[in-house]
Write a structure and sequence with these properties.
Elements lengths: L3 E3 L9 E4 L5 H17 L17 H7 L2 E6 L2 E9 L4 H7 L7 E9 L8 H11 L1 E3 L4 E7 L3 H9 L3 E5 L4 E7 L6
Parallel strand pairs: 5-7
Antiparallel strand pairs: 1-6, 2-3, 3-4, 4-5, 7-9, 8-9
Helix pairs in contact: 1-2
């Protein structure tokens, strides 16, 4: 669990990041289900499996492995993100079976509705880029459903390069990380 280094734990002046602990798992799952419900209210089916109790990313196990990071402000869970140091089966299906060396896979970025409109999603992506480093990894990969133009535009504006669309209809994005001297 310790093959990373914090450059900073501050996502912004009010929100700090830390590795999730097993006792955080229920709050993390609650945030994901709330986010899935909100997505459904907007007409999206994204993450809808969570509403039926299906967690394709096995979040509780990811917390136990140390792959989940929480963002807190004033003692409240403001957001979470999963940063996988090994590709999941989903990642292998999207990106192929080879070429995963050096990649961290970003999944399940979620912001509490209490923090809506504060640009926290942007700050969390910037933190994943500049606030943490994983030994031997020099890029972040993520994906999103191709028919969500707002989200696809967001990732492009955040510096992620479009790397194609999978057969299953997901856009693949990659961001090369600057090396940190020291």
């Amino acid at each position: 669990m310790g093959d990373f280094t914090y450059i900073t734990q501050q996502a912004n002046s009010e929100i700090s990041a830390r590795q999730a602990r097993p006792e955080d798992a229920s709050k993390v799952m609650e945030l994901l289900v709330q986010t899935a419900a909100w997505l459904r209210s907007t007409g999206s089916t994204q993450w809808s499996g969570l509403l039926e109790g299906v967690d394709s990313h096995n979040t509780v196990d990811a917390v136990a492995r140390g792959d989940v990071f929480v963002f807190e402000g004033d003692g409240h869970l403001a957001g979470m993100v999963m940063l996988l140091r090994q590709p999941s089966q989903w990642d292998k299906e999207l990106w192929g079976e080879t070429g995963h060396e050096g990649s961290v896979y970003l999944h399940r970025l979620a912001v509490s509705r209490l923090y809506r409109g504060r640009q926290l999603g942007r700050d969390m992506l910037n933190w994943a880029k500049n606030g943490i480093r994983f030994e031997g990894q020099d890029r972040i990969r993520l994906d999103c459903i191709a028919d969500n133009p707002v989200l696809n535009d967001f990732y492009a504006r955040m510096g992620y390069r479009h790397r194609g669309i999978s057969e299953s209809g997901f856009c693949k994005y990659e961001l090369l990380l600057d090396s940190i001297d020291g």
